[in-house]
Amino acid sequence: MILPQLQAPAPIIAMHRTTTVNLPRLICLCALAVVVPAATAVSGEITGTVAGPAQDGENSRVVVWVEGAPAPATPPANAVVSQKGIQFVPQLLIVTEGQTIDMPNDDNVAHNVFSMSPTKQFKLGIYPTGQSRSVTFEKAGVIDLFCSIHRHMHAVIIVTPSGHYAETEVGKGYKVADLPDGEYTVKAWNPALGVTEVSSVTVTGGVAECDITLEDNS
């Protein structure tokens, strides 16, 4: 008896063909979704000129800063005001709220550094050559620095709320950059005239103009 010949089953191909076609396409779409960056905010700036009575030398200096900008997540590294040559070096220092200032005695005589300014009052006591004291400034404002032993020694520390500031001179321009949109108070300090405040300036995705006329608030 002759047995009937069995037909071999056809290979299964179609199912594999469907999955291998779509998989690369899915991977590409996921990759594209990952690399698309999110939109970033546009930083603005406040610019203008500083007008006021003509000043000579150091009295022509002006520091402009803003209040209302976000503060840095962590305070900047320690700044330094040294005592050298029986004077403060530097005699003007601008720092950020929460920042610490080291005050080393690099002189060959003892000093006693102090401040009676409302923003920050302290007295470091007498300390000799080679020693240092440190002070943290938690509040924005202007601080006058003195030495009780050497009465002519004087320095100014300006503590800004967020580190957004500019240095200029009377009769010249200024620019405070990297500001997000918002409402800001602009302040300007001059050694002869004190602090002048501009009530409100609005920054909206670009440049806001703010001219300052210094007033005598010394």
Automatic annotation (TrEMBL):
Would the keyword Phosphoprotein turn up in this protein's UniProt record? no
Q: Which domain of life is it from?
A: Bacteria
One of the record's GO molecular function terms: electron transfer activity
Q: InterPro entries, from UniProt?
A: BlueCu_1, Cupredoxin, ET_Amicyanin
Q: Does the keyword Glycoprotein apply?
A: no
Q: Which Pfam families match?
A: Copper-bind (PF00127)
Domain named Blue (type 1) copper: residues: 81-159
Segment forming the signal sequence: 1-41
Full protein name:
Blue (type 1) copper domain-containing protein
Task: Specify the species.
Answer: Posidoniimonas corsicana
Q: What is the lineage of its organism?
A: Bacteria, Pseudomonadati, Planctomycetota, Planctomycetia, Pirellulales
